Amino acid sequence: MSQRLTILSQLAVKASLEGKWKDAVELNSQILEIDPHDLSARNRLGRAYLQISEFLKAKKCFEEVLELDPINSTAKKNILMAKSKKKESVQNPNVERSLIKEPGTTTEEYINITAKRITSDSLKPGEALYLRVDKKTTNIFKLDLKQKPEILLGKIEGPVATRLSRAKNLGAYLIAHFISGKGKTAKIMIRSTIPVFKSERQEVKPYMKKGTIEESEIEIPMLDEA
């Protein structure tokens, strides 16, 4: 069941990034049928309703989020838009949102593409990728709505894979996005809802847009160093 939820969540994020709002409504609704307490899915559903001008349904989604989490910044921002019957101004799918680097919760990695007939040119910047996390290895898959999601692109091993395994065991939601590449080499960004990656020291807190569909809603202390 958890694997099905992971796949549905990744497809729901992908649909939002590509501006496929009706698909986003369907996918997030499926998630909530399985797990009614998934606040991220309910926020995404509300945002999708906003974009197709279903303002009353959007308002209801954000109200339900705020009942469980009264300080949820995503819901607080978007419920105002629902009440004023305004859609988010998106001219093109906002791929950049998935590529914002956040200290502790994101890391950039390079993978060797081992899949036949697939190169970095087969992927789009911001494209969501599915992670299958084992104890010492994380396999990276290309998502495809027309096929099964088992199109293995490559794998990650070593310390990062170990941290991803620990994060998964603690209940973290993990997702990856393609950034760029050349030939059979791909640069990807991995995002976790639990801070598991080493972050560089920064004097100024990095800028992050509020209300994005990937915004973390729970702060969890950084995992101890392995």
Account of the protein in words:
The protein is of the alpha+beta class and 226 residues long. The chain is built from six helices and six strands, in the order αααααββββαββ. It has helices at residues 2-17, 21-34, 39-51, 55-68, 73-83, 159-169; strands at residues 106-112, 128-133, 137-142, 151-157, 174-182, 185-192. It has a six-stranded antiparallel beta sheet.
Structural class: alpha+beta
Number of DSSP-assigned strands: 6
General form: globular
Largest sheet, in brief, is: 6 strands, antiparallel
Order of helices and strands: HHHHHEEEEHEE
From the alpha-carbon coordinates, what is the Rg to the nearest angstrom? 17 Å
How many helix segments? 6
**Total separate domains:** 2
User: What is the fold named in CATH at topology level of the largest domain?
Assistant: Alpha-Beta Plaits
CATH class (first level) name of the largest domain? Alpha Beta
Strand order of the largest sheet: 1-6-5-2-3-4
Give the percentage of residues in beta strands: 15-25%
CATH architecture of the largest domain: 2-Layer Sandwich
* Percentage of residues assigned to helices: 25-40%
Terminal residue distance: 29 Å
Detail the poorly predicted runs.
Answer: 200-226
* Overall average residue pLDDT: 79
